[in-house]
Amino acid sequence: MYTDSHCHITDELLYGRIDEIMENILENKIDNVMVICCKEIDYLRAIELKKQFPFIRIAFGWYPQDALEITKKHFELLESVISSLDCVGEIGLDYYWDDSFKDKQKEIFIQQIQLANQYQKPISIHMRSATKDTLDILREYAQTKIIFHCFSGSKETMMECLKMDSMISFAGPITYKNARQAIECIEACPIDRILTETDSPYLTPVPFRGKQNEPKNVQFVAKKICDIKQVDLLVLCSQIEKNYHSLFQ
Ligand SMILES: [Zn+2]
Description:
The chain is an alpha/beta fold. The protein has helices at 12-15, 18-27, 40-52, 72-81, 102-119, 131-141, 155-162, 180-188, 218-229, 233-246, and strands at 2-7, 30-37, 56-60, 87-94, 123-128, 146-148, 166-170, 194-196. It has an eight-stranded parallel β-sheet. α5 (102-119) packs parallel to α6 (131-141). The structure holds zinc ion. The site of zinc ion (ZN) has 5 residues, from loops.
């Protein structure tokens, strides 16, 4: 029923509880889960997990804030496993914490887009305090489907994103009190362009805000979208599943 298009359940922070997390996924009808891997160990764990839970999809990519550490070896590794991936990501630009290596971030981002183009894989985009540069690069280079992960921009930015072959993915912050801008975006976003996600272990939605996040909580994101758009929960969830599967065709 539910779709979590972006979670880090093989990250150190969640992997210690993986049995319980998977049980909660099954019990809460989270039928679609994309595991985002930012390190080789995350990816190796995801491959193991997928053997037991075939509904899992795997994304792997080098994270923008790690750009300074990324070398040719990292690209060789990514390319060597790319046929096992459903998606390349999360990749993008993040000037929020440290904008002292923008050029390096751009270089790593563009190279990964080109890899995704070559192997026809969708890309999951991390864009923080870097809207203009991210969108300029995507317009110039991206040739596959785009997921704007944890979208938190303005309605105007979203409209620019929707001009591309993309999905807008919403996460826990839409349930927070100060979510006026996100609500405007959801109101304006066509239902066939929406995805849901948790970004676990971060960004826990209300009513569990403050606790560690996990995929089962994606239901609160979906329910919030239903409230805003005044659509039936089953209708929304089945449309989101359709949107999600269309990325991989
Ligand atoms: Zn993430």
